[in-house]
């Protein structure tokens, strides 16, 4: 099991606008292909104006397949266009679940 940890930094004062846009347009199309989001967090202490997404995959191949389908979806292409200039920085990490970690189950839908 792999966890993708994505951190996006937004300009000051743009957080609420982005979160509303993401909840309405981005998250529904992502969940069509990536399964249920593991977590979405907003920074409170430390570097501010950041959102963190957690997504789970069985393998890098699983991630590649799911993300390729997402990238081809017209709704996702439209959402990405809505975000032009929205981020100061973006970072993506792939984390492997340690053997002694509490178990993570794939979240492929309800």
Characteristics:
4 strands, alpha+beta, 4-stranded antiparallel beta sheet, single chain
Radius of gyration: 14 Å
The run of helices and strands is EHEEHHE
Task: Sketch the major β-sheet.
Answer: 4 strands, antiparallel
- Percent of residues in beta strands: 25-35%
Low-confidence stretches: none
Total number of β-strand segments? 4
Based on Cα principal axes, name the global outline: globular
Helix content: 25-40%
How far is the N terminus from the C terminus? 19 Å
Number of helices: 3
Compute the average pLDDT.
93
Give the strand line-up of the largest sheet: 2-3-1-4
Summing up helix and strand content along with how strands pair, one would put the structural category as alpha+beta
Describe the structure.
By secondary structure, this protein is α+β, with helices and mostly antiparallel strands. Helix content is 38%, strand content 25%. It has helices spanning 15-34, 60-72, 74-82, and strands spanning 2-9, 39-42, 50-57, 89-96. A 4-stranded antiparallel β-sheet has the order 2-3-1-4. Helix 1 packs across helix 2 (60-72) and helix 1 packs antiparallel against helix 3 (74-82). The longest helix has 20 residues, at 15-34. The relative contact order is 0.31.
């Amino acid at each position: 099991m792999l966890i993708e940890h994505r951190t996006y930094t937004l300009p000051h004062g743009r957080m609420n606008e982005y979160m509303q846009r993401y909840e309405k347009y981005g998250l529904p199309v992502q969940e069509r292909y990536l399964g249920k989001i593991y977590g979405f967090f907003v920074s409170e202490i430390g570097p501010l104006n950041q959102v963190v997404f957690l997504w789970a995959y069985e393998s890098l191949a699983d991630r590649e397949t799911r993300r390729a389908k997402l990238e081809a979806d017209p709704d996702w292409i439209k959402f990405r266009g809505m975000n032009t200039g929205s981020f100061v920085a973006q970072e993506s990490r792939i984390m492997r679940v340690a053997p002694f970690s509490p178990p993570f189950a794939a979240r492929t839908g309800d």
